[in-house]
Amino acid sequence: MDLPFVGDSVDRFVSGFFSIAATLLVFLFFAGIITLIVIYIIDVTQTKQAIRRNYPIVGRFRYFFEHLGEFFRQYFFSMDREELPFNRAQRSWVYRAAKHVDTTVAFGSTRDLRPSGTNIFVNCPFPTLGADAVPPGEVVIGPYARNPYATRSLYNISGMS
Question: What's this model's pTM, rounded to 2 decimal places?
Fold first, then answer.
């Protein structure tokens, strides 16, 4: 038994679906172009990052790939301290210092700590006896500066370290 108009309604549904899909695709295409134009204008007019200013839109990929590089180096490429003359750890420190961002990195070191003479800080492996203890002398950092810093310890560790 043939149902009347079933094929007609399916055809209308399919053509309506493709019409909406095509309209949506064209809308997304133009929205993408407008987004790229806005990003271009933002990159060209900003003054904080020279790479984005000189290479708008494409310059943004540098920071993305730099972030991803950390994960790829872990498995495929050289480590942070294997490059010469300046390794990735040194360059990262210089970039952070140039941007006036905190240059301290917490949670361990990427340096090889096995060679003899490497400074390793340990919580008092051999405690000093009370009779042998000598009060530390004052250390002045920047004695000729406008505001010299005076302390009684060589190493200062904050409460959050």
Answer: 0.43
Percentages helix, strand, coil for the chain (3-state, rounded to 5) are 50, 5, 50
Tokens of 99: 């941007």
Query: Residue 112's CB: how many other CB atoms inside 10 A?
Result: 8
- The CA–CA distances, whole Å, from 121 to 56, 130, 135 equal 46, 21, 20
| DSSP E strand boundaries for 35-157 | 139-141, 149-151
Residue 136: left if φ>0, alpha if ψ -120 to 50, beta else—which one? beta
Give the residue among 82, 35, 83 at the shortest CA–CA distance from 60.
35
pLDDT in tens, 72-96: 765 666 666 666 677 777 888 888 8
At 94-125, the pLDDT tens digits run 888 888 888 776 666 667 777 888 877 666 77
